[in-house]
Amino acid sequence: MDRRKLKFLFGSFIIIITVAWLGLSSFDENLAYYKTVNELHAMKEKAYGQRIRVAGNVVAGSIERLPEKIIFKLEQEGSVLPVSYVGKSLVPDTFKDDAQAMAEGKLMGNGEFQATLIQAKCASKYEAEYSQEALKASQE
Prior knowledge:
This protein is α+β, with helices and mostly antiparallel strands. It is built from 3 helices and 7 strands, in the order H-E-H-E-E-E-E-E-E-H.
């Protein structure tokens, strides 16, 4: 085999391996495991530093808006998780007391969940619309 072809094949191989490694390592960093509040508490130290999504209901009266972060509590099946949102995105309008919310981030050593993403919805808003549609359908 010609020496130039061998150099070309070796260079191509290095480039392909590098691109594959970069793709796989960034995929692993963006991977977030979905856990319930109970499962997160059961993981204990294993949860520290892992990217996790956790969902629950926002505890009424727990939302505290500070200049650098928003502090609130998520509750699910009797378990409560203190959450500190330090993300840069705007908080959704539907994020309020008793709303269903999902937080994505990492569990810190002090037991507080540090979220970088919050998604929320108000179940009563959607239930009211559904109720009116169901009422109309049942009358026909």
